[in-house]
Amino acid sequence: MNNFYDWIFEQELDHSQVILSTQRGDYTYRDIQQGVEEYFQLFESIGDIKGKRIALIVPSVYDFTNLALAISKLQGITVPLSPLLRQEDLISVLDFVSPHLIFTITEHNGFHLWETINQWAATSLKETIVLESKGDMKWKETFYTGENNPLEEGNIQIIGCTSGSTGTPKGIVYDVDFVQRVGKGINTGLDIVDNDKLFLLAPATGVFGLAWILSTMQSKTHLVLSENFNFPEIIQLFENHASQKFITTPSLFKAMDLFGKSLGKPVLNQVSLLCVFGELVTKEFLQTYSEFPAKIMSFLGITEFGTVMYTENDIRNDMNWTLLPNIKYKFDSLSEEGIGELLYQSERPFLGYYQRPDLTSEVYKDGWFFSGDLGRINDEGKIELVGRKKDMIKKGGQQVIPGEIENVLEKHPDVLRVVVVGTPHPVFGEQIIAFVQKGREDLDSKELYEYCNLRIARYKIPDQIRFIHEFPMVQGKIDKVTLRKEATEQE
Question: How far apart are CA 440 and CA 461, in angstroms?
């Protein structure tokens, strides 16, 4: 199949089956088809969209899905953009991807998306159509004249863009094969069976949200997902749809669990499988949910490449990874300790970065994708991840992997969480700084130095150990840039 619509609907379906649920309602296959048909008619009035980039800033999951399906069937390219983008980020991404059409709501959380987008379209000097909705999904069209905007060639389905407020935006090109790979990961890792109902708590209208929606729709699995992060609404949605399998990040799961318990509604106890992904699973998280009655597992996905591995066992017992079917791996530049960068290969190749063949050639060579993850094979014959190549610290001619030090320190019974970074040093090139969140008030650095001295090579022992009450976060992940800056300023 060369488009999402045929991939889903060219199979035998029960069109009355509810396949998608959000706060706005429940939707059957028939509802989806009818919604897509309405957008077919809208695009017919606009004209041929083959090869055109169409940006979607549409919080309604139902309309976002229908638009993506219609665009794919008509051979256009979907560019999902978050409604949380603000002026500088939004303009930077629009400059980068230069969409032919933009679907946007008027405003979101007090920010007037419409005004920023129209100011951009008026000054872009390219033909652009902006379609605005006040939230009712009735679209008002505004045409901007200008020079012809080049079309895309090939079977591109999606361009996923990063924001560009801290640098040049980056786009990743996706096709149907990418979404099929995500779907294979869902079905394999979650062991999907008939009548399963999945609850996804993650950004719904981005690339991975769209991939989950399309994949579960194709596999006939009912997906329930939130259109916002309003926890009372999320808990109500969960209560309305008793879902056996819950998929989210560790931090969002913990927030929802705590909020539910504060309301006297421990709703998550009915879950039979918890899948956490998208950020580090900490020792604190595993300790907090050591008695959680459901199995806890995880996926490893790469933004560029899709899902590659999953955990077969409960991660409270081990964090060993199993490759998905048809994914091959090898290590590049193995160290004496058996650690190297993980390279992946699939029958469905990586398409590359949008308009950046130079970046593509850096990570994709001879059919192998260079993930940037550092790993090794452990005593059980399983893949064990130990860190990221870009975080590697070079100290006095020795290469130090922060993840190794973090893993050692986090085994200390009174350490909750550790983040290790490298900062410049006038003699050794870099030095090792360990930020530690402690679980015992009188824990001191001397005790941790002695602990390290018995377990790791001398050159890996942190030069400084600094205690921290709370780690800075950005987009659900620890902000290592801020930690490095703080460490450098305190020299």
Answer: 21
Closest by CA position to 416, among listed 394, 435, 395: 435
Residue 359 within a domain: no
Pair of tokens at residue 360: 């593509």
Last residue of a domain, one of 285, 306, 325: 325
Residues 269 and 398 grouped into a single domain? no
Is 155 within 8 Å of 175 (Cβ atoms)?
yes
DSSP state of 154: S
Count CA atoms within 13 Å of residue 281 on its CB side: 25
CATH number at residue 440: 3.30.300.30
> At what angle are helices 113-123 and 87-97 packed, to 10 degrees?
40
Q: In this structure, which amino acid lies at residue 226?
A: S
Q: Are residues 134 and 5 in the same domain?
A: yes
Residue 227 lies in a domain: yes
- For residue 248, the cross-strand partners are 201, 276
Per-residue pLDDT, 164: 47
The domain boundary, picked from 302, 325, 348, lies at 325
Task: Give me the pLDDT at residue 240, please.
Answer: 92
Amino acid at the residue 12: E
Instruction: Please give the residue range of the domain that contains residue 435.
Output: 392-489
pLDDT in tens, 59-107: 999 999 999 999 999 999 999 999 988 888 899 999 999 999 999 999 9
Same domain for 310 and 452: no
- Both tokens of residue 64? 């976002």
Q: In this predicted model, what pLDDT tens digit does every residue of 10-69 receive, in sequence order?
A: 999 999 999 999 999 999 999 999 999 999 999 999 999 999 999 999 999 999 999 999
Sequence-distant (6+) residues with CB within 8 A of 108 are: 57, 59, 83, 84
Q: How much is the pLDDT for 1?
A: 63
Beta-sheet pairing, 197-201 with 245-248? parallel
Report phi then psi at 130, rounded to 5.
-110, 125
Q: Total domain count for the chain?
A: 2
Per-residue pLDDT, 404? 87
The answer for residues whose C-beta is within 8 angstroms of residue 261's C-beta and 6 or more apart is: none
- pLDDT computed for residue 165 by the predictor: 42
Low-confidence residues in the chain, pLDDT < 70: 1, 163-167, 475-476, 491
